[in-house]
Specification:
CATH superfamily: MFS general substrate transporter like domains
Number of domains: 1
Radius of gyration: 20 Å
Number of strands: 0
Oligomer: single chain
Strand content: under 5%
Shape: globular
């Protein structure tokens, strides 16, 4: 089976195992943090504040994380990021189990959690191509999407719903902390040692960042997609993360298990998509495919506003997960095959920085906007507007012409990648 080919590489198999365990914890966290906040304050504004704090922590450190990922051995960066996040979750879990946790504790602590993600993400994206042969990158990315969705969005949330209902959110946070420790141990066992990609002794961090920015500006597929992602996430991430659990809890009068089931349904859609693309490969019109899936992928939020049963939201979530996973798989392969190795950490950090740069605003606005115009109207706008804007950017940046100039993914040798600079 083509999909399992990358697992024959020892280091990739270790990274994949650690990531699987960690993502199970992430799925548990999604349910635990939403239910914990709504237990403390049944108000979307409270969860908005927690999401705002988390994204501020990420955005503030992303560019630094990218530079560090190109200057320092990436394995060490990832281990440090995992241990920081584990420590944060231990503190949250102990406060919750002790019955003294308050919303302001979460707001303060998730800043550090977001900072850990800011260092881990660019290092992970940059190290992955070092672990598998170039011809297996599509399969490696399919496995990455598969485990992200099956563990982080399918099994993890379902498990999270069970743990929160049976043992409480505090125990769920402590279980998530243990998964980060497992991930750090797996990464520590990697044999690969990524050497610094930049001459940090001779050039400033600002100069290195400028080099990454120049590359991004020279590639229409990069800058257009970053703008599309930034605007789309501004519109839909806050409403999705804050208002979906509110609708489940208050409109459908369902519990943590039902919320976990809806998240799990999105994971199921993603799993199927990853399996299909790993066998069939990416389409020739890969940019058109990526933008098409992302355009329709936010429309289920409209259905979240109109649905009146858990099964309806689950069906919509399957479609949402399938579309987002398909687009993300193409994007990951693009980043690994059309970005020079020495720029990967910085370009990944710029990707994250621009893409999620406005998400603090999204979380900050979700509570007040939903109070002003209503939860349903906010979800409808959050689903429809990004679809229109993403389609517009595809045509404005003339990405169809860019797609025709470059061969279907993955493009092969590193020499060809370097030639695009």
């Amino acid at each position: 089976m083509k999909l399992l080919g990358p697992l024959r590489e020892r280091d990739f198999a270790l990274l994949w195992a650690g990531m699987t365990v960690s993502l199970l914890g992430d799925g548990i966290y999604l349910v635990a943090v939403a239910w914990q906040v709504y237990d403390l304050s049944n108000d979307p504004t409270a969860l908005s504040l927690v999401g705002l704090s988390w994204t501020i922590g990420m955005v503030a450190f992303l560019l630094t994380g990218g530079v560090v990922s190109d200057r320092v051995e990436r394995r060490r960066v990832m281990i440090g990021a995992d241990l920081v996040r584990a420590a944060v979750l231990v503190v949250i879990g102990i406060l919750s189990v002790s019955g003294v946790l308050e919303v302001w504790h979460l707001v303060a602590l998730v800043v550090l959690f977001g900072a850990g993600e800011a260092f881990f993400g660019p290092a992970f994206g940059a190290i992955l191509p070092d672990l598998v042969p170039g011809e297996q990158l599509v399969q490696a990315n399919a496995l990455d999407q598969l485990v992200r969705q099956s563990a982080g969005r399918l099994i993890g949330p379902a498990l999270g719903g069970f743990v929160v209902a049976a043992l409480g959110a505090g125990s769920a946070f402590l279980l998530d902390a243990a998964t980060f420790a497992v991930s750090a141990a797996c990464i520590a066992a990697l044999r690969v040692r990524s050497l610094p990609q930049t001459d940090g002794a001779e050039r400033s961090a600002r100069a290195e960042l400028r080099e990454g920015v120049v590359f991004v500006r020279s590639q229409p597929w990069l800058w257009a997609t970053l703008i599309a992602a930034a605007v789309s996430l501004l519109m839909f991430l806050g409403p999705l993360e804050v208002l979906l659990p509110f609708v489940v809890r208050n409109d459908l009068h369902a519990g943590a298990g039902s919320f976990g089931a809806i998240l799990a349904a999105a994971g199921a859609g993603s799993v199927v998509t990853s399996l299909v693309l790993s066998q069939r490969g990416l389409p020739r019109r890969y940019l058109t495919f990526m933008y098409a899936t992302w355009c329709v992928g936010t429309l289920p939020l409209v259905g979240y506003a109109l649905g009146n049963a858990v099964w309806q939201l689950m069906a919509l979530a399957v479609f949402y997960g399938a579309c987002m996973s398909a687009g993300n798989l193409v994007w990951a392969t693009l980043m690994q095959t059309r970005v020079p190795p020495g720029l990967r950490g910085r370009v990944h950090s710029l990707d994250w920085f621009v893409s999620i740069g406005l998400t603090p605003v999204s979380f900050a606005l979700t509570g007040p906007v939903s109070k002003a115009i209503g939860v349903d109207a906010t979800l409808i706008a959050a689903g429809a507007v990004p679809a229109v804007l993403t389609a517009a950017l595809f045509f404005l940046a003339r990405l169809r012409a860019d797609e025709q100039r470059h061969p279907p993914l993955p493009v092969a040798p590193a020499e060809a990648i370097a030639a695009t600079v």
